[in-house]
Amino acid sequence: MAASAGRLLRLRAAGAEGPWRRLRGAGMPRGFLQSASACGAAAQRRQVAHFTFQPDAEPVEYGQTQKMNLFQAVTSALDNSLAKDPTAVIFGEDVAFGGVFRCTVGLRDKYGKDRVFNTPLCEQGIVGFGIGIAVTGATAIAEIQFADYIFPAFDQIVNEAAKYRYRSGDLFNCGSLTIRSPWGCVGHGALYHSQSPEAFFAHCPGIKVVVPRSPFQAKGLLLSCIEDKNPCIFFEPKILYRAAVEQVPVEPYNIPLSQAEVIQEGSDVTLVAWGTQVHVIREVAAMAQEKLGVSCEVIDLRTILPWDVDTVCKSVIKTGRLLVSHEAPLTGGFASEISSTVQEECFLNLEAPISRVCGYDTPFPHIFEPFYIPDKWKCYDALRKMINY
Amino acid sequence: MRKMLAAVSRVLSVVAQKPASRVLVASRHFANDATFEIKKCDLHRLEEGPPVTTVLTREDGLKYYRMMQTVRRMELKADQLYKQKIIRGFCHLEACCVGLEAGINPTDHLITAYRAHGFTFTRGLSVREILAELTGRRGGCAKGKGGSMHMYAKNFYGGNGIVGAQVPLGAGIALACKYNGKDEVCLTLYGDGAANQGQIFEAYNMAALWKLPCIFICENNRYGMGTSVERAAASTDYYKRGDFIPGLRVDGMDILCVREATKFAAAYCRSGKGPILMELQTYRYHGHSMSDPGVSYRTREEIQEVRSKSDPIMLLKDRMVNSNLASVEELKEIDVEVRKEIEDAAQFATADPEPPLEELGYHIYCNDPPFEVRGANQWIKFKSIS
């Protein structure tokens, strides 16, 4: 199972960026394409990741830590939840043997088959069922195997889960429901294994949408989602499941929702992203410092809905420039909401138009993926144009 | 004289002149056709089922054998190419397609889920186009933009990634068939995992209500990815799940059984009696997709047993050789030809250039003037034409 999961995600080394950088920086995508199709060695070049995971410093305030990757951090969070809360149940497709991404390994053996169980192939059924469990007060942790498959459940999430408390005047609620789902591009996912649907759910008051950038963040945020008294959707960047490794506390801990984190302070430009893209913009910030002498403030939004308007606006007031980046398509992507709100609040402080570096307005492509994703070069380019505005 | 004939036929077959070698080989007294007994199908709400005997002609037999070998070799080649990282994305591989195709006309319609390579071939596309689509090149059937799960051909509607979603589509195609009045039917395939999706039951209801000429076909290979059918379905009698729709359960490993059942089902639909459900009991040797080794949820012995006892290609071969419809050498020749064809196609698929970058924005909408697709930032734009 390890081998297959590994093959599924195709772990890539962070370092081998040389030839990639040269060709991209020179603006010759076509040349790159032709040589890539020529031989196996060049095909290897194409699989270099578009980001480098940058781990945070080891946290000291939560006790003993252990080296974990993203899926192990998720398993740890779920383990803590099931131990603390006797009503907690985990269900979804293939979760019993550990899940296709190994996020639930060992939990069925530890907690029993009536607490960790498989469902048939029916997303609408899974979420509807989860809402039912949550309404009676038990904690339901549902898994949707890929975020691309969440759409049959869209009606249940938007029309049932999100509106339960509101329409019953606080008599009933399904707050103990958490939906977890692998999210985002993975290098070879094509149309139906790479989507980032957070924008669809951002349009729905009543639910919370959270995206972590690293194992430490994931465990804390997932535990907060499970304990939060509102239905939450927790998107896990699948490309980071194995690629992201850092020290994570063994004991449970919480990271507050609806709070963005300023990862790096700066004075000239604000960069905002979430999930995998945070690592891309961190690199962009380093490049900007080195090549342009520009000091960037990097913010990880963490919670998409309800989002932390104050932190972002305070930062923009300080710097005067904002760049938002995400993999989802540009039109209607969450960057448009951030952009719109920031220009309302901080109009007079803006030195340049707000820049959005996002995926194209096309379905997530099969062969064109390296060109589709907003990599660090596109972000750097946008940043440069903003500085020179 | 006989030895000379055999020698000449060998030479000619090396030069790959099929008609000539067949003429020469035909002089070795092969039967023209043979009658076989096939398994009786389990029936649900049907008085009679497909016949229990069928006639297989030599020509048909050779044709089916060649098609099945091609599909199998093509899938193995795709497996190889994936391991060499020349194919990216997901790759779901497998063999009922030949039997189904034998039971219908080319003007009938077919739609399935992601295990589409075999159907793309039986519906008329060449192996080159299929392999080129897998490697994402412009010679591919979807111009390189779809990949493994999205292949289309005339009267073949794919190739769909979201399982279960293709079944209401199939019902819609059946409605169009009925509306056009051309006596066509639509085969709508799905798997045992997808059989638990809600939209399938919606499609059953609509098809039965409006008597649509839709043949719902459940390819039951006993595992929905890694979950065995007993653990996923309250009722594993998939042919009865249509409830008010009559159904039959067919041995999917026997191509003649599949052919007869399909003919029966197609005749049923064409007579205007409404939809019908077929469950094909089949098996897949490899895992669900390239990332699944296929042995964590079942034993190797099980796979070996099925492969040695019920392999469809082996069954057909035995039948044909035992009733003197073909010789072992002849079938071996077909194997060699097929292998060569696949090699050529793989060559083409690896060497063909990828689609040009401009095509990133094409075919999103259908529009009169081309419009611009916004790119990753405000300075990148792609033209979208249809």
Automatic annotation (TrEMBL), chain A:
Look up the record and name the cofactor or cofactors this protein needs. thiamine diphosphate
| SUPFAM superfamilies cross-referenced by the UniProt entry | Thiamin diphosphate-binding fold (THDP-binding) (SSF52518), TK C-terminal domain-like (SSF52922)
Reactions listed under catalytic activity: N(6)-[(R)-lipoyl]-L-lysyl-[protein] + 3-methyl-2-oxobutanoate + H(+) = N(6)-[(R)-S(8)-2-methylpropanoyldihydrolipoyl]-L-lysyl-[protein] + CO2
Q: GO annotations under biological process?
A: branched-chain alpha-keto acid decarboxylation to branched-chain acyl-CoA; response to nutrient
Q: Which terms are listed as keywords in the entry?
A: Mitochondrion, Oxidoreductase, Transit peptide
Question: EC top class, in one word?
Answer: oxidoreductase
An example of a GO molecular function for this protein is: branched-chain 2-oxo acid dehydrogenase activity
Report the principal subcellular site.
mitochondrion
GO cellular component term of the entry, any: nucleolus
Q: What CDD domains has UniProt attached to this entry?
A: TPP_PYR_E1-PDHc-beta_like
| One protein family per Pfam | Transketolase_C
- Tell me where on the tree of life, at the top rank, the source sits: Eukaryota
**Subcellular location, record wording:** Mitochondrion matrix
Could you tell me which residue ranges the Transketolase-like pyrimidine-binding domain spans? 68-243
Q: EC number(s) per UniProt? A: 1.2.4.4
What this chain does, per the entry, is described as: Together with BCKDHA forms the heterotetrameric E1 subunit of the mitochondrial branched-chain alpha-ketoacid dehydrogenase (BCKD) complex. The BCKD complex catalyzes the multi-step oxidative decarboxylation of alpha-ketoacids derived from the branched-chain amino-acids valine, leucine and isoleucine producing CO2 and acyl-CoA which is subsequently utilized to produce energy. The E1 subunit catalyzes the first step with the decarboxylation of the alpha-ketoacid forming an enzyme-product intermediate.
Subunit composition and interactions: Heterotetramer of 2 alpha/BCKDHA and 2 beta chains/BCKDHB that forms the branched-chain alpha-keto acid decarboxylase (E1) component of the BCKD complex. The branched-chain alpha-ketoacid dehydrogenase is a large complex composed of three major building blocks E1, E2 and E3. It is organized around E2, a 24-meric cubic core composed of DBT, to which are associated 6 to 12 copies of E1, and approximately 6 copies of the dehydrogenase E3, a DLD dimer.
Recorded protein name is 2-oxoisovalerate dehydrogenase subunit beta, mitochondrial
Q: Which species does the entry assign this protein to? A: Moschus moschiferus (Siberian musk deer)
TrEMBL record, chain B:
Q: Which reaction(s) does its UniProt entry say it catalyses?
A: N(6)-[(R)-lipoyl]-L-lysyl-[protein] + pyruvate + H(+) = N(6)-[(R)-S(8)-acetyldihydrolipoyl]-L-lysyl-[protein] + CO2
Superkingdom of source? Eukaryota
A Pfam match: E1_dh
Query: What Gene Ontology terms describe where this protein resides (cellular component)?
Result: mitochondrial matrix
Q: Enumerate the UniProt keywords alphabetically.
A: Carbohydrate metabolism, Glucose metabolism, Magnesium, Metal-binding, Mitochondrion, Oxidoreductase, Phosphoprotein, Pyruvate, Thiamine pyrophosphate, Transit peptide, Tricarboxylic acid cycle
Q: State the function annotated in the UniProt record.
A: The pyruvate dehydrogenase complex catalyzes the overall conversion of pyruvate to acetyl-CoA and CO(2), and thereby links the glycolytic pathway to the tricarboxylic cycle.
Q: What is the top EC class of this enzyme, as a single word?
A: oxidoreductase
Gene designation per UniProt = PDHA1
Domain annotation Dehydrogenase E1 component: ranges? 67-357
The transmembrane segments are none
Please give the chief subcellular localization of this protein. mitochondrion
Q: Which GO terms describe its molecular function?
A: metal ion binding; pyruvate dehydrogenase (acetyl-transferring) activity
Catalytic activity, EC:
1.2.4.1
How is this protein named in the record? Pyruvate dehydrogenase E1 component subunit alpha
